[in-house]
Amino acid sequence: MKGNENAINTANNSLISINGLKKYYNGEKVKALDGVNMEIKKGEVVVIIGPSGSGKSTFLRSLNLLEIPTEGKIIFDGVDITDPKTNINLHRRKMGMVFQHFNLFANMNILKNMTIAPMKLLNKSKEEAEKNALNLLNRVGLEDRASAFPSQLSGGQKQRVAIVRALCMEPEVMLFDEPTSALDPEMVGEVLDVMKALAAEGMTMAVVTHEMGFAKEVATRVVFMDAGKILEQGTPDEIFTNPQNPRLKDFLSKVLT
Amino acid sequence: MFDELRDKIMLCFIDNGYWEWLVEGFLHTVLITVFAVLLGLVFGVILAAVRSSYDKNEETLKLRGGIGYYLLKFFNAVCKIYITVIRGVPVVVQLMIWYFVILVSSKSDIAVAVIAFGFNSAAYVAEIFRGGIMSIDNGQFEAGRSLGFNYVQTMAYVVIPQTVKAVLPTLLNEIIALLKETSIAGYVGIMDLTKAGDLIRGRTFEAFIPLIAVAIIYLITVVVLTRVFTAVERRLRRNER
After folding, report:
1. Sheet of A221-226, strands arranged across
2. Measuring CA to CA, which residue among A17, A35, A38 is closest to residue A233?
3. pLDDT digit string, tens, across residues B204-218
4. Which of A70, A150, A156, A232 could form a disulfide with A187 if both were Cys (CB 3.0 to 4.6 A apart)?
């Protein structure tokens, strides 16, 4: 199968290596993830697509252990982060995460949202952290909102802040969990533009999304999941113009209308 | 008619210096309330910390194993039993148990009342804080953890500040309730505000004037408390926008 070859070829020099990942709820009744293997290399943009309930969000959230997998290994930077002895907090610093609902800290203004983690966790000085934050805000066109509170921002603005907040920690990989699903349609573009720019700079990214346009344009690899399994993966061209798996064909026929 | 009322007021408060009882009673009421609130807050927050830590980390700890899970599970169960018992027994019964059974050799009646009301209030404060913590969107918590903050840091920087603001109105309710609950301190021989009014009633055979006076003093205290809390809330909200 195409998917397996791919995994073996890229087994070396991979940033994240996922092995036999399983996540069961209620004993074994609900199998959100049912044996997922994947390699993510440095600089790759992996876009994960699939119907709702297919386990793609659970998979992404497992990568930084917001969901604790029932079984399987995740090797990040050569360290098995699923090992209970691993200090996951140290590794999460290097994995930026962007959520569907933004999750900006409601009790802090934008600048504080972006500086608190670098200051408290990386021991950066206030000046350094703020300078870096303002630079990043500038890049997403929001430098004038630095002192605003999250409740004063639009959805698109919040999500752009959430992305640069994660970048403040200088992560090695960025995880995006349906970053545009909670946005009004006219705000989707501004967020995707930031993500495209990030991909162009060579950031390693894993993106769960329903934006097929983004997948076609930006992904180096598209992964199709259903029922907790990876059913097919390949380049955007392979997935979108020549899908093999019947479930993928069915899925694409519904979303690409 | 007004002369008659004036005479009664003089009789109840001035002629025999009974107003001093009211002052002393009010001071005792305030003393018991203030220290019971402090004790209730400190102990209640500890209870809430255990309960919510368990609620928030149960799944993670279970899957990641270790003795921490069993320790937390044990302490959580102890806290739950404590809260159930306290909430299930009338506070006046608790007060009498402290006074006549547990602390029977105590020299200070006021201290016994502080302990009884404080440990009673703690159970309610615990549930207020736990409810507050659980009411904060879990996304806030996850965002903190995803940046690399540990559990305690995430709670301290992100969740607790938002919780405090959310629970302030409910906390005020609890303090008002506690203030008024202290009126049963007379059961164990403490002269609080209510007892003072009742003593005056017994001495003067006048019920209306002393009891209305006591009611008005409670009312004014509660109104002042509410004003203070509203001001604090407004200030906290201003900091957010």
Report:
1. A95-98, A173-177, A204-208, A45-49, A221-226, A229-234
2. A38
3. 999 999 999 999 999
4. A156
Backbone dihedral angles phi then psi of residue A145, each to the nearest 5 degrees = -105, 10
- Which residue in the set A68, A92, A102 is minimally distant from B148, CB to CB? A92
Structure-token match 């409740």, residue found: A151
Q: Is B173 left (phi over 0), alpha (psi -120 to 50) or beta?
A: alpha
- In 3D space, the residue among B137, B102, B133, B132 whose CA is nearest the CA of residue B116 turns out to be B102
What ipTM, to 2 d.p.? 0.91
Residue in the structure block whose two tokens are 């506690």 = B178
- pTM score, whole prediction: 0.87
In Å, what is the CA distance from A116 to each residue of A109, A126, A204?
11, 9, 24
List the beta bridge partners of residue A45: A205
Binding-site residues on chain A for chain B (CB distance < 8 A): 64, 66, 68, 70, 84, 89-90, 92-93, 95-97, 99, 101-107, 116-117, 120-121, 149, 151-152, 162, 165-166, 169
Residue pointed to by tokens 């970053």:
A179
Are the beta carbons of A236 and A216 closer than 8 angstroms?
Answer: yes
Nearest-CB residue to B63 (from A68, A96, A102): A68
Question: To 10 degrees, what angle do helices A110-121 and A126-139 make?
Answer: 130
- Per-residue model confidence as pLDDT tens digits over B29-66: 999 999 999 999 999 999 999 999 999 888 778 777 67
